[in-house]
C-alpha cells in the first residue's frame, strides 16, 4: 500500500501501465534534491528506464514548472 507523497507517483504508475501499450509516453519527475519519484517509477516498471527521467530542481518543484521550466524542457529534449 502506498502512503504519503508516493500516492501521486503511484497514480502515475497506474496511468503509465494502462497507457504504455497504446501510446508512446515518457515521464519527467521533479524532486528537490533526490530522484526518488523516478526511481519509484523504475522499480514499479511503469515504463522502461529510458522513458523515465528525474530532475533534481534544487528548490520547490512547483517553481520548476511555473516560473522556470528550462530544466524540464531540457529533460524532454534528452528523452
From TrEMBL:
- InterPro entries documented for this protein: CobW/HypB/UreG_nucleotide-bd (IPR003495), P-loop_NTPase (IPR027417), UreG (IPR004400)
Q: Which domain of life is it from?
A: Bacteria
The record ties this protein, via Pfam families, to: cobW
GO MF, one annotated term: GTP binding
Q: Where is the CobW/HypB/UreG nucleotide-binding domain?
A: 8-78
Q: Which GO terms describe its biological process?
A: urea catabolic process
Alphabetically sorted, this entry's keywords are: Chaperone, GTP-binding, Nickel insertion, Nucleotide-binding
Family statement: Belongs to the SIMIBI class G3E GTPase family. UreG subfamily.
Q: What is this protein called?
A: Urease accessory protein UreG
Q: Origin organism of this chain?
A: Hassallia byssoidea VB512170
